[in-house]
């Protein structure tokens, strides 16, 4: 949706909340549907039960690929930059991507995949990852992408939960200086996963891997088989608007990961609409999102959103600081990137290397900047604006979640007046409200409360896979008839929203949500640990660091060795992403008489704010707090 002025945005926004169904009806008509919908929306938030575009038939890949072929088949769809800057980059046009997706769709069919099957994808950031995702969608299989940094146990948990029958992986991958042993991690995971019948393995790192006869096949061999069968065509499976498109596991406030379910029609409409609207995308612009497809940002804003709009999306295998801190700027210069969408963690990390390295590169092609994952703090906002955007690029600081499918509160590039540190105003069609602890709406401006959404939007989650009650409990039971985001929020005098952080037991580390319970469970698996409590604390680069308080009476004489052992345990059970930054050994934890750990007190100690611990007299053993304070790291 294109805007010419802030006034026009305000008029469209008003229309969208007075006539939401008509608004979304009009947005959806810009997509290709095999059969139109009979009913735009049926909903109730109590169950919850949400259905958008009922009765409509479509396939999302026809919108991402086929509909662009006639006029834009030769336009670049994906530009891929490898981890190693000396390796050649690759460009796939819409026609080439369409052919490769059809080809791999036929590979999946040859290996027994059919509509409704769940397929786990655990791959490096190579074009074949996007191809695998789109091929699943084309044949109506449900993809479950797992980020290439998760451990074998984490993958096994996800495969078992979704009962996947096929895994798509690679021999290995590269990220910065790290070699990722993907196939061997999958082999370890599959010991626990009898549902998996086939593993399709892409050659990437050329490392030796074990291939099990009858189960494991090489991607390249399977492609050759399809090529001998003739035409790469694979007709897209007709899907219902409410059929499942994918499951993406996110960390919850209990130890078990939850599979967020997104559906074909609503998710397609929402990602395409939000991508075009927030960035005011113009045909021909080169758009670079630095996320990994293993996260929701990669699903929505590398694959489905940009491709549905015929955009050129740049995909990067490596990390922003390798082989040096100029890598991101080198890529911007090399491909004349117009839109750069990255994370506050990356921005803060690159800031720490100073501006001399930035000045070596020509960043004049940039016209718009974006940020995702957590609020962009003011210092980083100004650095991004001045050093990277040279004061001429609007910063689209987006607030959204895995569960929302796409941007919710975000500036519209070159339309919304900007405020550093603020996500800004809701996009048309999104109805946020602030409520107090009792769920009563807090009206007016210059207020703060818990952020909820009071009306459905097409990209919202429909359920958590195999456990609808968990979906209801997590998002819809806290406040009646509202979707609860789990975030605290401030609304200033101009109505701008500023996210103030999680209000539940979930950490936001480098823009990724990690449940404290999940980390505690992993720490407690270590043989010498009796109990642990995990909280977040401010971290200069990551935004939030992980601080663990651990009771371990049988630890080695060398505390550092025990710390390393615990870190290794967390890495094996969840993955390196969840490793605590600080581990403090304690003799006890601050608990109420009913046994509840007072994380509020631990959070204050971790933040270094020991003067404001509040009343500790109701604790079972108030003395333990003094001991923890004295030993704080």
Model description:
- By secondary structure, the chain is an alpha/beta fold.
- The protein has 2 domains: 6-432, ANL, N-terminal domain (Rossmann fold), CATH 3.40.50.12780; 509-630, ANL, C-terminal domain (GMP Synthetase, Chain A, domain 3), CATH 3.30.300.
- 32% of the residues lie in helices and 23% in strands.
- It has 18 helices and 30 strands.
- Helix 6 (152-162) packs across helix 7 (182-190) and helix 9 (264-279) crosses helix 10.
- The radius of gyration is 24 Å and the shape is globular.
- 51% of the residues are buried.
Helix content: 25-40%
Sheet with the most strands: spatial strand order? 5-4-17-16-18-19-20
| CATH top-level class of the largest domain | Alpha Beta
CATH architecture of the largest domain: 3-Layer(aba) Sandwich
Spans of at least 5 consecutive residues whose pLDDT stays below 50 are none
Assign an overall shape: globular
Number of domains: 2
Average pLDDT rating: 93
What is the H level of CATH, i.e. the homologous superfamily of the largest domain?
A: ANL, N-terminal domain
Q: Could you describe the largest sheet, including whether it forms a barrel?
A: 7 strands, mixed
CA gyration radius, whole angstroms:
24 Å
**Tally of separate helices:** 18
Q: Report, as a whole number of angstroms, the end-to-end distance.
A: 50 Å
Percentage of residues in DSSP E strands: 15-25%
Based on secondary structure, the structural category is alpha/beta
């Amino acid at each position: 949706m294109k805007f010419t002025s802030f006034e026009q945005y305000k008029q469209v926004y008003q229309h969208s909340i007075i006539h939401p169904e008509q608004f979304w009806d009009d947005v959806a008509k810009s997509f290709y549907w095999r059969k139109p919908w009979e009913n735009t929306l049926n909903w109730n938030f109590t169950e919850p039960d949400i259905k958008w575009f009922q009765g409509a038939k479509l396939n999302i890949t026809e919108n991402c690929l086929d509909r662009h072929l006639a006029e834009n088949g030769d336009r670049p769809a994906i530009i891929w930059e490898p981890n190693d800057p000396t390796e050649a980059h690759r460009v796939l046009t819409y026609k080439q991507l369409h052919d490769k997706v059809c080809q791999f769709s036929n590979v999946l069919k040859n290996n027994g995949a059919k509509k409704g099957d769940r397929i786990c994808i655990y791959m490096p950031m190579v074009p074949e990852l996007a191809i695998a995702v789109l091929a699943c969608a084309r044949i109506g299989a449900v993809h479950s992408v797992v980020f290439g940094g998760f451990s074998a146990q984490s993958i096994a948990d996800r495969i078992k939960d979704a009962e996947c029958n096929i895994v798509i992986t690679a021999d290995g991958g590269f990220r910065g200086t790290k070699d990722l042993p993907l196939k061997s991690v999958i082999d370890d995971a599959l010991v626990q996963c009898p549902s998996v019948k086939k593993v399709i393995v892409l050659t990437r790192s050329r490392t030796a891997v074990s291939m099990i006869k009858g189960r494991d096949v090489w991607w390249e061999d399977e492609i050759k088989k399809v090529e001998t069968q003739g035409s790469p065509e694979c007709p897209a499976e007709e899907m219902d608007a409410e059929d499942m498109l994918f499951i993406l596991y996110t960390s919850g406030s209990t130890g078990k990961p939850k599979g967020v379910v997104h559906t074909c029609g609503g998710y397609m409409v929402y990602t395409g609409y939000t991508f075009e609207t927030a960035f005011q995308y113009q045909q021909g612009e080169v758009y670079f999102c630095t996320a990994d497809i293993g996260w929701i940002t990669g699903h929505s804003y590398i694959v489905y959103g940009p491709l549905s709009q015929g955009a050129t999306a740049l995909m990067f295998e490596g990390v922003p600081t390798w082989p040096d801190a100029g890598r991101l700027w080198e890529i911007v210069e090399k491909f004349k990137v117009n839109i750069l969408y990255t994370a506050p963690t990356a921005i803060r990390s690159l800031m720490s290397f100073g501006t001399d390295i930035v000045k070596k590169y020509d960043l004049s092609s940039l016209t718009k900047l974006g940020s995702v994952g957590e609020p962009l703090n003011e210092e980083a906002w100004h650095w991004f604006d001045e050093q990277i955007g040279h004061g001429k690029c609007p910063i689209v600081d987006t607030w959204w979640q895995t569960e929302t499918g796409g941007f919710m509160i975000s500036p519209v590039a070159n339309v919304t007046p900007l405020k550093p540190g603020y996500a800004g105003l809701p996009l048309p069609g999104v109805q946020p409200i602030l409520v107090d602890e009792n769920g009563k709406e807090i009206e007016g401006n210059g207020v703060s409360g818990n952020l909820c959404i009071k009306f459905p939007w097409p990209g919202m989650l429909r359920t958590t896979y195999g456990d609808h009650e968990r979906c209801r409990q997590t998002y819809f039971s806290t406040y009646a008839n509202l979707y609860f985001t789990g975030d605290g929020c401030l609304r200033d005098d101009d109505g701008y929203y500023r996210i103030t952080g999680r209000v539940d037991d979930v950490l936001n580390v480098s823009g990724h949500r990690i449940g404290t319970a999940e980390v505690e469970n992993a720490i407690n698996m270590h043989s010498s640990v009796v109990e642990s409590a995990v909280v977040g604390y401010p971290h200069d680069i990551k935004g939030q660091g992980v601080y663990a308080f651990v009771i371990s009476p049988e630890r080695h004489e060398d505390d550092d060795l025990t710390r390393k052992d615990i870190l290794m345990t967390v890495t094996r059970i969840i993955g390196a992403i969840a490793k605590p930054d600080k581990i403090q050994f304690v003799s006890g934890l601050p608990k109420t008489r009913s046994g509840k750990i007072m994380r509020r007190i631990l959070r204050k100690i971790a933040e270094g704010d020991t003067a404001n611990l509040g009343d500790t007299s109701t604790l079972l053993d108030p003395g333990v707090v003094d001991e923890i304070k004295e030993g704080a790291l």
